[in-house]
Amino acid sequence: MAPLPGSGLAKGLAVTLRTMTRKSVTAQYPDTQPDLPPRTRGVIGLFEENCTVCMLCARECPDWCIYIDSHKETVPAATPGGRERSRNVLDRFAIDFSLCMYCGICIEVCPFDALFWSPEFEYAETDIRDLTHERDKLREWMWTVPAPPALDPGAEEPKELAAARKTADKLAAARAEPQEEES
Ligand code: SF4
Ligand code: SF4
Description:
Mean pLDDT: 91
Distance between the termini: 106 Å
Family: Belongs to the complex I 23 kDa subunit family.
Low-confidence stretches: none
Radius of gyration: 27 Å
Structural class: alpha+beta
CATH class of one domain: Alpha Beta
Strand order of the largest sheet: 2-3-5
Shape: elongated
Main location: membrane
Protein name: NADH-quinone oxidoreductase subunit I
CATH architecture of one domain: 2-Layer Sandwich
Bound molecules: iron/sulfur cluster
Enzyme class: translocase
Number of helices: 5
Largest sheet: 3 strands, antiparallel
Membrane topology: Peripheral membrane protein
CATH topology of one domain: Alpha-Beta Plaits
């Protein structure tokens, strides 16, 4: 049967009326900030104290957009007659976010927990060169990284906590010893 004349128009108007009465879902950014999930991939933060300059992140980055420079330093032997050691010292750590594709591989492969996702995303620039964030800027992003989620109740305690507690106990015992001797 042929449709009644004007039925298409009526259907269209019905849809318009229905959607007009619905609550709008459009957020008026930047007046309203989006409520982002904690695991949002916004920008990468560097916790450089944990970085050993192993270069794994730079080697695995598919876009080759991590730039690391370092030099070696000799650390004197800890005990008399011991061996000197050498360690890497970080000179430059930068990420070019104009090339980064936010795959997260660098964060996944870092064996020392030195890279983290931050949900911050407001770092657009008018000059593309400013999208290369040097270590100071990457460090600033660290303060915007959300705390890790709490462990499941009943989960096994991470071995790092036990090791930290053991070290703290040893230090406390070493500090208490001279006081006991004095008294
Ligand atoms: S997120 Fe991916 S593309 Fe970006 S720096 Fe890390 S490894 Fe490279
Ligand atoms: S993988 Fe981690 S420890 Fe190694 S250079 Fe990259 S950030 Fe530093």
